[in-house]
Amino acid sequence: MLKELLTPEIVQLIRERQWTDMRDALIIWPPAEVADLIESIDEPTRVLLLRFLPRDYEAEVFAELTPGLQNDLLKELTNREVRGLLSELSPDDRTALIDEMPAEVTKRLLGLLSPEDLAETRQLLGYPEWSVGRVMTPCFVDIRADMTAAEALERVRERGSESETVNVVYVTDAEGKLLDEISLRHLILAPPEKSIESIMDGNFVSLSGYSDQEEAVAVIKKYNYLALPVVDSAGVLIGIVTIDDLMDVAEAEVTEDFQKLGAVSVQIGGEGPIENIREAAVSILFRSRIGWLVLLVVVNILSGFEMSFFENTIKATVALVFFLPLLVGSGGNAGSQSATLLVRALATGNVKMGDLGKMFIKEVSVSALMGATMAAAVCGLAFYRGGTRVGIVVAISMVVIVTASSLVGLLLPFILYKMGKDPATASAPLVASIADISGILIYFSIASWVI
Fold first, then answer.
1. Burial status of residue 119 (CB atoms within 10 A of its CB: 0-12, 13-18, 19 or more)
2. pTM of the entire structure?
3. What is the CATH number of the domain that holds 113?
4. If you count Cβ atoms within 10 Å of the first and of the last residue's Cβ in the chain, which end, N or C, has fewer?
5. What's the start-to-end Cα distance of the chain, in Å?
């Protein structure tokens, strides 16, 4: 890694005030590598390093930093320096920066924007959170259908430096309505005198600025695009969303799903998932976890009430208690496995609501086989510790509990999905707690029946 190889050298150059040598050593590296370097050095050195980078390169590096570090650096930079930095940031990166900063910092940043950038930023911030409009950029190359290939290439040369990508150019009419998209490769290979209209096929995919970012991720993955056009209600091209921004969205969505599966609340106070626990405040981490834990404590209290109904059975055969943690733990593990597999399948689109019947039958088969295998593994000990009847109870209970818990893990995400909720809310601890309650009821009911 660059930071491991060059950190001492860069710090030494800064101490010796060799700014030119320092800048020349860094600008040949990808901005993400320099961002890693900045995060690894002390605060005064960070500011000095950032100040002496070329302005356009500085903006690229700044966009790669974590929001917490961006906030720290903004406090150290003068208004003039911040104004220059904001002017070099791409519209989507600028919007993301302002959206993630505390209120007082946001107010300062908005006051430093040029009138044009301010209008552009406010337009993007006007879209709902997690909509495509928040991550799109209005910088793209558009051409007209009545142009020749040579004229279109000339327009690409004129406006390409302002666009975030020129892999694809967009054909629009006089009102700006999107008609088609053409890859730069096809444009270059077309005869210079050939009209754009003659090479159009009208085959393109577009999104609304109000589309969910997850939808954009799914579309760009399905069609292997590097960018997607964004249109308004009249079909007018208003921007594009690129794969690098959607990769950040996909990562945030996966982070959110993992945290929900672990019973960690997201959207605390309107915020998104906790993407950097190292920088997260103690209060945020506490609030994100305590709610679910208290709820699960209440749910698990029901397990104690359940056991009180089977006091006579427990007194008659104390050996039953020995196998209780094993059985309910096995059920919780099986249910968590089932929920995890299904939540991911629903998220990727591999499973739809119409697949519920097929998935139910398959899960019954799989879980019954697992339960039988686990019963075979433990029934010998059950026969030894409690005799024939306890052995039979434990074996039957293992099969029934594992099957029932697996079906809970299967059905809960489906139910949430049908209700329009995030299936990941069917967290592993929640499924395990429900499995515990049902497992105790199943175990002692079978014990009462057999013994």
1. exposed
2. 0.60
3. 1.25.60.10
4. N
5. 66
Fill in the amino acid letter for 332.
Answer: G
Q: Are 18 and 80 found together in one domain?
A: yes
Instruction: Tell me the pLDDT band of 122, cut-offs 50, 70 and 90.
Output: confident
Whether residue 119 sits in one domain with residue 80: yes
pLDDT of 316 above 60 = yes
Mark whether 290 and 220 lie in a shared domain. Answer: no
Same domain, 101 and 194: no
Is the same domain home to 299 and 441?
A: yes
Burial, 194: exposed, middle or buried (Cβ in 10 Å; 0-12, 13-18, 19+)?
Answer: middle
Range of 72's domain? Answer: 2-126
Rounded distance between C-alpha atoms, residue 31 and residue 34, angstroms: 5
- Tell me, what DSSP letter sits at residue 128? P
Burial class (CB in 10 A: 0-12, 13-18, 19+), 173: middle
Q: Answer whether residue 272 is part of any domain.
A: no
